[in-house]
Design brief:
- By secondary structure, the protein is mainly alpha-helical.
- Among the domains are: about 1-30; about 45-80, no CATH class.
- It contains two helices and two strands; from the N terminus they run H-E-E-H.
- It has helices at about 5-30, 65-85, and strands at about 50-55, 60-65.
- It has a two-stranded antiparallel sheet with strand order 1-2.
- The radius of gyration is 36 Å and the shape is flat.
């Protein structure tokens, strides 16, 4: 089979294998994947004013005790004290924007 028939058979076999491979690769997309629970669904916890949500145990636990409230109030005071002297000035207007360069003047004709 040293004739062009040999190359025709090889080309046909390659094309057939390519079509089979393409069909096989597209097949899993037709079936939805099974749901494998990797982690249990987390319950949603509503955010509440003056209460904290503790995630340290791996679960969301809403805490509302005097100790937590004093910590929150202390932290709010510290943030307010740290930010009381912070001011932001206006942005420089035209100084920051570069002016477009003017094209050079054409040389005078003799």
């Amino acid at each position: 089979m040293k004739s062009p028939l040999r190359w025709l058979v090889i080309a046909l076999a390659t094309a057939t294998l390519a079509l089979v491979a393409a069909r096989w690769l597209r097949l899993p997309a037709r079936f939805p994947p099974r749901d494998h629970p990797t982690a249990p669904p987390q319950p949603e916890v509503a955010i509440q004013d003056g209460k904290t949500i503790d995630f340290s145990s791996g679960r969301a636990v809403v805490k509302d005790d005097a100790k937590q409230k004093t910590l929150i109030e202390k932290s709010v005071r510290e943030m307010a004290d740290a930010a009381k002297d912070v001011t932001f000035g206006p942005a420089p207007a035209a100084a920051a924007e570069p002016k477009p360069a003017e094209p050079p003047a054409p040389p005078p004709k003799p």
